[in-house]
Design brief:
heterodimer, A: about 230 residues, alpha/beta, two-stranded antiparallel sheet, 5 helices, about 20% helix, about 25% strand, B: about 80 residues, alpha+beta, three-stranded antiparallel β-sheet, 2 helices, 3 strands, ATP-binding (chain B), PurS-like_sf (chain B), EC 6.3.5.3 (chain B), purine biosynthesis (chain B), phosphoribosylformylglycinamidine synthase activity (chain B)
Chain lengths: ~230, ~80
């Protein structure tokens, strides 16, 4: 799997992501600054977390207009796989590659804590190492992760099986208390219709080694490494 | 020519900032504030001198960048 992590001014989780990708592929992913061109032979593009462009205007809004996004949109149109975590999810939404919006957390508080996620769709390049309904722990660290979309969009996401992850409690139930940022229908992550773009707010890349306190997030990267074997 | 773009959370979209401001006003003893919505104003200084063209340009900017029309509505005023 040949992966590239896009680095915008203000991106700050790219090294965590590199650790996760290196762990499953054995080699360093490319780190691409936002003014560089996207190489043509990539299997995976990753938009990592952080505060690109200082969250000016809206989280992800400035990065979504940066030069490399043209290449990333073309990569998406050709069926390329893209993972966006936290600010990366916000950028994918602002770029129109995933539907909806991410509002300020309902509590208005920046949430820095672990949450439990439930896998809503297995068998994708991002989730093949999990069973549907499996739960796992993931750290979250965001101020604007409150997923919003109109009812028609939410119904479509659910109807087409494009909800990737939901916030749940320790029993795997999607309760209001487990939904710390107030997301519509407890949605933590979604897929594009072709299942090749995945965006989520929590950080699976931050639990990929026992030294980090667990390996709960590792199956996502194992899934990617297994699914996206380079030709 | 100056254009002012008013960006507001759409009706029906939760506005936690507005809610918090409302609570703070209540705490200060201001009674009768039924609802608060918080948005932003973006002022543009445009080279365009035709008001209609300036407005349409500012609206285009709002649609493409200044507002996220999934969650926000906007209105342009030409000064």
């Amino acid at each position: 799997m040949k992966a590239a992590i896009i680095v915008f001014p203000g991106t700050n989780r790219e090294r965590d992501m590199r650790t996760a990708l290196k762990r499953v592929t054995g080699r360093d992913p490319l780190m691409l600054f936002h003014r560089e061109d996207l190489p043509r032979d990539l299997d995976l593009v990753v938009l990592a977390g952080g505060f690109s462009y200082g969250d000016y205007l809206r989280c992800g809004a400035m990065a979504a207009q940066s030069p490399i996004m043209k290449d990333i949109k073309a990569f998406a149109e050709k069926g390329g796989h893209i993972l966006g975590v936290c600010n990366g999810f916000q950028i994918l939404i602002e770029a129109g590659l995933l539907p909806g919006g991410l509002l300020r957390n309902a509590s208005l508080r920046f949430l820095s804590m672990d949450c439990t996620l439930r896998v809503e769709r297995a068998g994708t390049a991002f989730t093949s190492r999990w069973q549907k309904g499996a739960t796992f722990r993931a750290p979250m660290a965001h101020g604007d992760g409150n997923y919003f979309a109109d009812d028609a969009t939410l119904d479509r996401l659910e109807g087409e099986g494009l909800v990737a992850f939901r916030y749940v409690n320790e029993n795997g139930e999607a309760t209001e208390a487990a939904n710390r940022n107030g997301s519509a229908r407890n949605i933590a992550g979604i897929f594009s219709p072709n299942l090749r773009i995945c965006g989520l707010m929590p950080h699976p890349e931050d639990l990929v080694d026992d030294l980090m306190g667990g390996t709960d997030g590792l199956p996502m990267f194992e899934s990617l490494a297994e699914s996206l074997v380079s030709a | 020519m100056k254009a002012r773009v008013y960006v507001m959370p759409k009706a029906g979209v939760l506005d936690p900032q507005g809610k918090a401001i409302g609570h703070a006003l209540e705490g200060l003893g201001f009674a009768g504030v039924n609802d608060v919505r918080a948005g932003k104003v973006i002022e543009l200084d445009l080279a365009e001198t035709d008001p209609a063209k300036a407005k349409s340009a500012a609206e285009d900017m709002a649609r493409k960048l200044l507002a996220n029309t999934v969650i926000e509505s906007f209105r342009v005023e030409i000064a």
